[in-house]
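user: Please supply your own:

assistant:
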Amino acid sequence: MKGTDMLTIGAFARACRLSPKALRLYDELELLRPARVDPDSGYRYYAVAQLERARLVAWLRRLGMPLAGIREVCALEPAAAAREIRAYWARVEAETAVRRDLAGFLVDHLAAGPAAPGKDTTMLELRYAAHSDRGRVRPSNQDTAYAGTRLLAVADGFGPAGAPASGAAVEALRFLDTEEVPAGNVLNLLEDAVRGATDAVRDVADPGENGTTLTALLWTGSQLALVHIGDSRAYLLRDGGLFRITHDHSVVQSLIDEGRLTPEEAGSHPQRAMLLKALTTGTPDLKLHDTRRGDRYLLCSDGLTEVVPEHRIRELLTAHSDPEEAVRALVDAANEAGGPDNVSCVVADVV
């Protein structure tokens, strides 16, 4: 062809590093249509200006994004496309983490070999308590807290139907409290249960205006499986040290992660209550945690952590050996600090 603004399919394939076969497929899928098709030969020609889109398609394919997702990204403005790619990769990392944890469990389980006949096995169980309080400012309580033999959960609802949303999320998980859970299947079981919880929230509350966080632990008898989304938190108190085992899905946490905000500045940031993900709008984190006798776990809504600093939380968890006394002391501390939000706490000891 004459001119320099059109390339044959072969030349275009070399320039964008997509094979002619891939280009023909993307043409059929209306993902990357040629600029011109010869009416006689059917040969495809591409404009030089299409190289940028073609390279984007190639990069996204190397990233592993499905074709349907690539089509959506290519239709967006650059800033929106960047956000969609970031969200896609966050989902990939979450799913990879689940597979990594499961692979680690299988490696450890198989490497240990079968237990010797007659070998004594130390049986561990949870001793637990839960308490939820309206606080001193809010007109109603939109939190839900639950503690049982196997299931621990805190959900913090928001919007006009926040209370039904958080209640539905936790209620949808309660069957796990009575179901025997083989350790190797716990993450799959928990992931399926969370899908049910998501559907339950959508059934009782318009997801456009309402939603809920969810942080839950499922006990297998030797491990705890964690599911987490939003800015409620889970902590581990071990050997006197307090460790946060969840990562907030919030605007201020993302700013901290990017180095644009310090943890001290986050407490007064005007968007500190704004979530990036909630149960109906994102993929939860799923992880397995090995436990030790003497471990103490705390699940709480942000009504506690917004007003009670972590060093004080550690002091209260250490000072009260009984889980019921500990949850009451934590809720009281939040209310003594003004109680600006609903506050919910679950404390469980591995004994």
